[in-house]
Amino acid sequence: MIARLLLSYLRRHTALIFAFFMGAGIFAAVFSLYDLPEEAVAYASALTAAVFLTLGGIRFSVFCARHRALLALNKRIDVELSGLPQPSSLLEAEYQRLLRALFESKRALASALAEKQAQTEEYYALWAHQVKTPIAAMRLMLGASDHDAQLDAELFKIEQYVEMALGYVRAQSDQTDYVLNRAALDEIIRASLRKYARAFVLSKTRLSFRETNLRVLTDEKWLAFCLEQILSNALKYAPGGEIGVYAEGETLVVSDTGIGIAPEDLPRVFEKGYTGYNGRVDMRATGIGLYLVKTVLGRLGHGISIESAPDCGTKVVISLGRDETAFE
Fewer CB under 10 Å: which end of the chain, C or N? Predict the structure, then answer.
């Protein structure tokens, strides 16, 4: 570190060092023309070099102190800008003034964006609450009369799209209400499977569920949200097939015997808005579900990966170990 700082300092003062040696050379040449004793010239040069090195050492120590102050400031610059070193020149003072103006502009912009995000989330929460009321009423009316089971399925899809829209807005916020607890994974899985039970029946899809007997540190609501998105995808692309839910060590696996994912699409399935070949065939795909799953699981400290091939089904693996860096 010191060597790198010294090299940077010398480069910063290259012109001054060059001027010193040029001056020393000029004085030596002039003195030699007047036949002055070499000892006197050498003595004067040594004294000058000592003074120059002493002043340079002092200036270098100040340079190191300012560098340390800037490194310390770099750790908290997102919060405050106090603690900048005193400017040593008019130009440096102007640079600091410009930096403070940019910081204030950034803080004002961040505040405006946070307020806008809060308003958007509030609007969608209100919208979701209002739209759920007629959905509940329709479900009651359907339950009180003979009807096509397909109507139930379509109503269920509407409910899921509402949940996805609300989840999308909340996932974009830095203040989402994650609450971590030790939870029984099997209870979360069963609740999600019960929610999708009718969809399994209507699509004639078989379910293979093996108890995991795992307890995980997670947010039950958001993990269930992710699991439901994965189940929804599996049901969409594997109707009449089989969906398996089981554990492999400390991971949760959701597998299906559906149409699979093309190799060129697999690296991009978690990208926002990316639907791939399957999405272009199924015009209803939004490209949001897996993006949300990846985002939420990352914030919970979990991971996700997908293994798939065309006509060979898909295997979604959720690693339930908590990544501490997700909460730093």
Answer: C
